[in-house]
Amino acid sequence: MAHGVLWTVLGLLLWTELGTASLPLVMDSVIQALVELEQKAPVMEASRGASAQSLPTKDSNPHNPLHHFLLGAPSLKAVKLVPHSLSPQLQDLINRVTQHDVRGGQEYGVVLAPDGSTVAVKPLLAGLEAGLQGRRAVNLSLASQATPWDTGDTLPGLRDASPDVTSPNVRTVLPNDKAKPPTTVDSILAVTLAGDLGLTFLQSPQTQSHPGLGTEGCWDQVSVPQTFTLLNPKASMVTMAFLNGALDGALLGDHLSQIPEPRPPFSQLLSQYYGAGVSGDPEFRSNFRRQKGAALTSVSDLTQQVWGTLILLQRLEPGHPQLQNMTQEQLAQVASHATKEFTEAFLECPAIHPRCRWGAAPYKGRPTPLQLPLGFLYVHHTYVPASPCTTFARCAANMRSMQRFHQDTQGWDDIGYSFVVGSDGYVYEGRGWHRMGAHTRGRNSRGFGVAFVGNYTATLPTEAALRTVRDELPSCALRAGLLRPDYKVLGHRQLVHTDCPGDALFGLLRTWPHFTETES
Ligand SMILES: *[C@@H]1O[C@H](CO)[C@@H](O)[C@H](O)[C@H]1NC(C)=O
Ligand SMILES: *[C@@H]1O[C@H](CO)[C@@H](O)[C@H](O)[C@H]1NC(C)=O
Ligand SMILES: *[C@@H]1O[C@H](CO)[C@@H](O)[C@H](O)[C@H]1NC(C)=O
């Protein structure tokens, strides 16, 4: 049933009706559309014939031979039946979200999820579709004949997809002249992440810095979002929303491939995965997609997958302008660079909600720019609010109320902290990396002030939140040249007469690497 629904969703791209009132671009709208399709799916399934691939096809992704080859193409028969039974609003929504594009500083085909992240729907659906077909290792030597569905064995686990990988834990060992080219590609990783990641880095092979990987954006409004404007107009296609959707697609596809039949409807799967709120440490939720992604595939596996996917694309599309005369070694270089950037700048970095996401009021007055890199990280707790926040809605409301207090009562320019850490898997941008904060009197130009939401006098933040501040935030800042390699960590109470960051938290802080008893 789910299979038919997916083809219908992809197939609806062929049906464009304009002039209908628009549903908000939120994940719940997508789930609502899936529920409606699932209710109508039995009818559709019956008339669908034996299998999608045997029916005449009009590829809904004419520019994507990879999807066509690995997933087959949607059935026109199925497509024709359903559109008229869907409400025009849902049709319109599906038309808008199933193509991903970056154009004129805006991003299309993305929705706002309950955890506050923005997600590209197309790679998400591609991952679900690949997962539904079982996790497959596609033999690259057969691929030269470009026959769809000449698939290899069903894989027991993604990690097994690259038999050539010898030491998955050695991060710096990337393909070189001696690495063996991959012989298979994993269908789930290829259609979600590996293809687009490889192609994006192929397009700018000469630049050593990443082509705007993971660019964030702002919704026109968070309650009824309709347009999404990127913060960097030069963003590549692998935006933050794309990476989120691709990773979710890979994770959910992998999950789906392991569930025995009958499989749950997509709507149910998505409701659970994107459900608002978490109860602590990493669960199978969109909030913790990066942690789960790091466990799904290693750097060396993913490098082989990107490399293999580029080789597959080269065979499927011999006239591809960028792939045409590339040697296997050159493709290996691209794969290695792309995977390194993806891992170091996305997967292993904390997820940070930009100011616009939590509804920050504008900065009052003129910010003082910081002279980067800084040498200190000052750790705080908010004390008030005293309870940890575990949902996007609650954390965002906390951010707004702290900003109001700091601006209106204290008379400061902005919320004082550089960053604030929730217990929902997210960091919230305060003054950020570039503007001087108001967190640690006398030291604001020397360090970043990072606060945990909550009162940690007697209890500790979640392990995930602690790891974010202890490991991920500083290592990413260091890599980006924002923090010095010899940075020092201090608690607020070491510099100002205060109990902050609480006895319990301060006790733990003293055991952290980079903690120092004295400043100098
Ligand atoms: C792929 O197909 C070729 C040709 O049929 C075969 O020789 C080879 O063993 C296959 N490789 C894998 C990894 O299945
Ligand atoms: C690739 O090589 C062929 C044959 O040498 C040449 O005609 C073609 O222009 C090259 N394409 C690119 C994109 O360099
Ligand atoms: C913070 O926690 C301590 C210890 O549990 C408690 O005594 C204090 O009242 C709390 N403060 C607030 C503002 O909740």
Percent of residues in β-strands: 5-15%
Q: Can you list the strand order of the major beta sheet?
A: 9-12-11-13-10-14
Counted by DSSP, the helix tally is 17
Q: N- to C-terminal separation?
A: 65 Å
| Secondary-structure class | alpha/beta
Overall pLDDT confidence: 84
| Shape type | globular
List the domain count as a whole number.
2
Query: Level of helix content?
Result: 25-40%
How many strands? 14
> What is the makeup of the main sheet?
6 strands, mixed
Q: List the ligand species.
A: 2-acetamido-2-deoxy-beta-D-glucopyranose
Low-pLDDT stretches are: 13-20, 43-62, 75-81, 145-174
Instruction: Write down the Rg.
Output: 24 Å
Descriptive overview:
- The protein is an alpha/beta fold and 520 residues long.
- The protein folds into two domains: 100-348, no CATH class; 353-509, Lysozyme-like.
- It is 39% helix and 11% strand.
- The protein has helices at residues 2-11, 27-46, 65-71, 76-81, 88-97, 121-132, 140-143, 187-203, 240-258, 266-273, 289-296, 299-316, 328-347, 355-358, 392-409, 463-479, 503-509; strands spanning 101-103, 106-108, 110-112, 118-120, 137-139, 184-186, 217-219, 228-230, 352-353, 374-381, 419-421, 427-429, 447-452, 483-491.
- The protein has a six-stranded mixed beta sheet, with helices on both faces. The chain has a two-stranded antiparallel ribbon with strand order 1-2. Strands 3-4 form a two-stranded antiparallel sheet.
- A hairpin with an 8-residue loop joins β7 (217-219) and β8 (228-230).
- α1 runs antiparallel to α6 (121-132), α6 packs antiparallel against α8 and α8 packs across α13.
- The structure holds 2-acetamido-2-deoxy-beta-D-glucopyranose (3 copies).
- One 2-acetamido-2-deoxy-beta-D-glucopyranose (NAG) is lined by residues 383-384, 386, 455, 457-458.
